[in-house]
Amino acid sequence: MFVYSLAGLQVDGGAMAETELPDNETTARTGVYQLLARLISIPDRDIHAGALAGTWGKELTDAGHLLAFPFDFSSASVESSVSPEDFQAEFLRLFEVGNGAGPAAPIYGGMYGGDRMQRLEEVVRFYEYFGLTTSAEDPRPADHLATELEFMKYLTFKEAVSTSPRLQTSYRRAQHDFLDRQLSTWVPALAESTTAAGTWPYWQWLTGTIREFVAADAKYVAGILGS
């Protein structure tokens, strides 16, 4: 059974309880988005331990073993000399804070072209349409990559629990629109910036994996909808 929980976003002012779902091709997508969102958040000691052991590729493969499309998650690790503190510091340098001139590879979608406030408003409208707001307990900007991946997790979860074919199609169309208008427009640039920053192979693997999975999933959803 797949255990679903929501982080970074909240529904109607409250957190969603954990929910068990049967394993199938839809919850496989939910599971992958859930783990990718966790991996691209500020890393805790568990994330660091998995990066040292090089096991996150296998964890993603296990989460997505029922995907309806082929995908190779590959794997990567960090050197055993990298401490949890150094690991977190590199995450912050690359994606969130930088060294005084801003992050080398901003993890915020609104920072990739155009007016960031306008991009933020567009993302927030997506969330609000489905009764979601950013979580006060887990505060992140609405355009943070982890939050956007959490939203895709939510949409695939809602598809999985819907018994109405009409509602399932509605959630798939929302997934298509969000992938097309948001994630697909900036995640490739994030992956390129991460590589250009000269960081460890682990972070290049992670952002590259997110880029390739978003592209593969967008193609899959478009195919279902006949777009």
Entry summary:
It is built from eight helices and four strands.
Provide an overview of this structure.
The protein is mainly alpha-helical. It has a single domain (2-225), classed as Orthogonal Bundle (TorD-like), CATH 1.10.3480. Helix content is 59%, strand content 5%. The chain contains 8 helices and 4 strands, in the order βββαααααβααα. The chain has a two-stranded antiparallel ribbon with strand order 1-3. It is globular. Residues 1-5 have low confidence and may be disordered.
SSE order, one letter for each helix or strand: EEEHHHHHEHHH
- Helix segment count? 8
In what range is the share of β-strand residues? 5-15%
List low-pLDDT spans: 1-5
Query: Strand pairing plus helix content: what structural class?
Result: mainly alpha
Query: Which architecture per CATH?
Result: Orthogonal Bundle
Arithmetic mean of pLDDT: 90
The CATH homologous superfamily is called TorD-like
Question: In this structure, how is the largest beta sheet organized?
Answer: 2 strands, antiparallel
Report the end-to-end length measured between terminal Cα atoms: 31 Å
The radius of gyration over CA amounts to 17 Å
Number of domains: 1
Shape: globular
CATH topology group: TorD-like
Tell how many strands the DSSP assignment holds: 4
Output the CATH class name: Mainly Alpha
Residues in helix, %: 55-70%
**Numbering strands along the chain, what is their spatial order in the largest sheet?**
1-3
